[in-house]
Fold this sequence. Notes:
By secondary structure, the protein is α/β, with parallel strands linked by helices. Helices cover 31% and strands 20% of the residues.
Amino acid sequence: MIDAASPIKVDKPELIRGKRILAVEDGPTLTHGEMKIGAAIVAARKYGASEIVDPREYTVGKLTQTFEIYPNIGHLLPAMGYSDEQIKDLEKTIDNTPCDTVIIGTPIDLARILKINKPFARVTYDLQEIGFPTLNEVLTDFVAKNVK
């Protein structure tokens, strides 16, 4: 067992404090993974957002259907798929949602594939090993025992 944490980093934390934010999270993590919190929410709390805006009444197209299929997602906006239709639905939903800042907590940099017409901050995270054994030690031992 490897003890670890995933500390977050935000590229523009000044866009969060005291702001009404829209939290965009990894879609499959929220739907199939049934998680109620992601990196964007962690960043919103850590950097003092005044409010997390609920996007449900502002969704369009496939995103509206996603909330119907997965009603327990809550007040996070899932980034679902990357077809042209899904990208346009996500763009329109972000445009429709009244917020000061969009926090992107997805593994992919959505700003590379979407036109976001609001200030946005991107959250990233890394693996931080705590104590021993480390991942490198476990993998080195595994390879030594199993690869010939």
